[in-house]
Amino acid sequence: MALFGSKKETAEAAPEVTKKVTKKKKTVATGTGDLSWVIKKPRITEKAALLNDKNVYVFEVARRATKTDVTNAITEHFKVTPIKVNIVNRTPRRTKSRARNRTVVVSGEKKAHVFLKKGDTINLI
């Protein structure tokens, strides 16, 4: 039974284990340049309309967009500087169709809540 032998020399003579090198993800944040890809469309719902009274505007943004991308795109497109930006990821999910017994995939999205100063407004219509 060679597996359960008491040889201590084999542990010392074992070859060195090399570490795996993993590549870091590159960020897509672009401080300058064309930022038209960031904002898809404004999100016009009842909840978003109630938030507009509080100077909070909701936009659907690209999946790879970051907070800095959204702030730069808002300042470039609407000429308004936001105070802060919150981003919400909705993951895609599977549901059952009520009409037929099939599974339906509801696509996910990425929303950005843009907070502005009191005097600033964005005309969405």
Structural topology:
Layout lengths: L8 H4 L26 E4 L3 H7 L3 E6 L5 H12 L5 E7 L2 E4 L6 E4 L2 E7 L10
Antiparallel strand pairs: 1-2, 2-6, 3-6, 4-5
Structure overview:
With 125 residues, the protein is of the alpha+beta class. It is built from 3 helices and 6 strands. It has helices at residues 9-12, 46-52, 67-78; strands at 39-42, 56-61, 84-90, 93-96, 103-106, 109-115. A 4-stranded antiparallel sheet has the order 1-2-6-3, sandwiched between helices. A two-stranded antiparallel ribbon has the order 4-5. It is flat and about 80 Å long. The model has no long low-confidence stretch (mean pLDDT 84).
Put the structure in a nutshell.
By secondary structure, the protein is of the alpha+beta class. Helix content is 18%, strand content 26%. The strands form 2 sheets. It has a 4-stranded antiparallel sheet, with helices on both faces.
Supply the helix-strand structural class.
alpha+beta
- Beta-strand level of the residues, as a percent range? 25-35%
Low-confidence stretches: none
SS element count, helices: 3
How would you sum up the global shape? Answer: flat
Amino- and carboxy-terminal Cα gap = 81 Å
Mean pLDDT: 84
Helix content: 10-25%
Instruction: Characterize the biggest β-sheet.
Output: 4 strands, antiparallel
* H and E order: HEHEHEEEE
The total of beta strands comes to 6
Spatial strand sequence of the major β-sheet: 1-2-6-3
Q: What Rg is obtained from the alpha carbons, in whole angstroms?
A: 25 Å
